[in-house]
Amino acid sequence: MNARIGEIADGIFRLSVRVDAIAPPAGFTFNHFVVLGDEPLLFHAGLRGMFPVLREALGHLIPPEKLRWISFGHYEADECGAMNEWLAVAPRAEVAHGQTGCMVSLNDMADRLPRVLQDGEVIDLGKGRRVRYVDTPHIPHGWDAGVLYEEASGTLLCGDLFTQVGDGPALTGSDIVGPAIATEDYFRFSSLNPGMGRTIRRLAEISPRTLALMHGPSFAGDCAAALRDLADDYDARVRASLSVT
Ligand SMILES: [Fe+2]
Ligand SMILES: [Fe+2]
Asked: Which domain does 123 fall in, by range?
């Protein structure tokens, strides 16, 4: 197992680990994003089993003990399994997450108390980097779900949204909606709910320039259109599920 390092937007690096045993023969990637700044942030702490590989990879960008913020989409092992390992190696690091995630899981599970983020709250990382937290409950899954938007580069760290199987380049301009729809059919990983389309269209209104996918290549292109297309697909799924008798 190794982590490939790629810069997907100015000052934002992707640490990508491919696992061949998931969804063979395509395989599956787990991506972790580093936002550089005076207070570097890691989005996705990663599985505990990946921690040695990720720590070594982060060391190519910053001394791991300088990590200041740890955030992620929701409480699951691939998103935050290794958060306490990071807290142990980085003495100034804090976990940052939304109110629900902190109340339901992190106030107990994190070895140091997390910083609670309100919907829309910004963390200033220094050097012009600011990340905004956006609540997206149950989307694509998890009551505590949320995303981060890095304002300087226009990068939406969108977690499990647009999940796709297989490997690929760090950054693509090719379609990511079709592969996401196919992967939804394969895994059924999303919690279909009536608020999906509305919440995802709210992300489109941010008009990001890059989408940083946890499972798949990052996308540079018309991100608002991709988000609206994904929202339409989820709306159709919700309608179809309600029409089944
Ligand atoms: Fe997840
Ligand atoms: Fe994930």
From this structure: 3-243
